[in-house]
Amino acid sequence: MSFEMDQAEQARIKALLDDSLQDFDAATLSRLNQARQRALQLSERRRRSTWRRPALGLALASAMLLLLVPARTPPPPVEGGLPETSLSPSLSPLEIALLSDAEDLDLVENLEFYAWLELEEDWDGSS
Amino acid sequence: MIVASAAQGTGEVGRVREDARVLQRAALDGFLRQIERKALRMAELATRNVDDALELVQDAMLGFVRHYADKPQTDWSPLFYKVLDSRLLDFHRRRQVRNRWMVYFSDNRRPATVEDEADPLQAVPDLDGAQPLQRLEGSQAMADLQQALGQLPDRQRQAFLLRHWEGFDGATTARIMGCTEGSVKTHLSRAMHALRQRLENHR
Fold first, then answer.
1. Other CB atoms closer than 10 Å to residue B112's CB: what's the count?
2. Staple A1 to which of B16, B48, B104, B126, CB 3.0 to 4.6 Å?
3. Which residues of A touch B132 (CB under 8 A)?
4. Do residues A43 and B25 lie in contact, with contact meaning Cβ atoms separated by under 8 Å?
């Protein structure tokens, strides 16, 4: 007896299995659709987070620059009133740097998600 | 002038990114639509439970997106099935552990195993010249085939479905299953043997 499948056998099996794909009920297909949508959402989030990682690096570098430059260059003497370059006394340089890029606002707002994403990747990588 | 040019460049980059995003999403959506039902049927045959199967397929989709969505689209199919195969293996390992504990606490019977060595079908004699798989017809045949596939040991069933349903060649099937081509051939011959035996009434 041959354990190799001839073409007729293979075609018959394939046709039967293909036909069986029409047997899923509406509820199952709906859940399958939800699963696909979740996967697509994850793909979108990953794509956004990939683009934002360099932006975060740039923002942090800018913040460091803002922190270091004023420390090294003494401010010019001001005669009365606040210096003209002051943006707002309530915002830190880091906040100014982050808020200067509108796209990074999303990163700040979704920081927990991106942290979770990183953890997920680390976990997958170690498993 | 320079500022306007830079702004135009930024806008162009944004449009290119958006186009790439839309294309990637459409391609991914199309691919997942194409494989989702087959994946679900494979998982259902392996777990015999549609809820478990749906969960496994979702895990496989998420794992595929996390690790392989950036790979060339021509590689997506084997990569997806590699993830699914890995999830199915994990599922059976967990179930084996659970079964061992249940057996340990209930009685002293030996726990069931899915290892090929324990497959009682290996002792079943061959059927000379039989071609029952070729004569499968009708809805009863489909039910019988699904039942027979569901009763195969996991690795045999997976090798059979990847090779003869999904149409991967031996080398790709071996890569998906993380074994050698020789092992795939062994799994396939045992699967064929068992299926022909179980579908004997369709001769």
1. 11
2. B126
3. none
4. yes
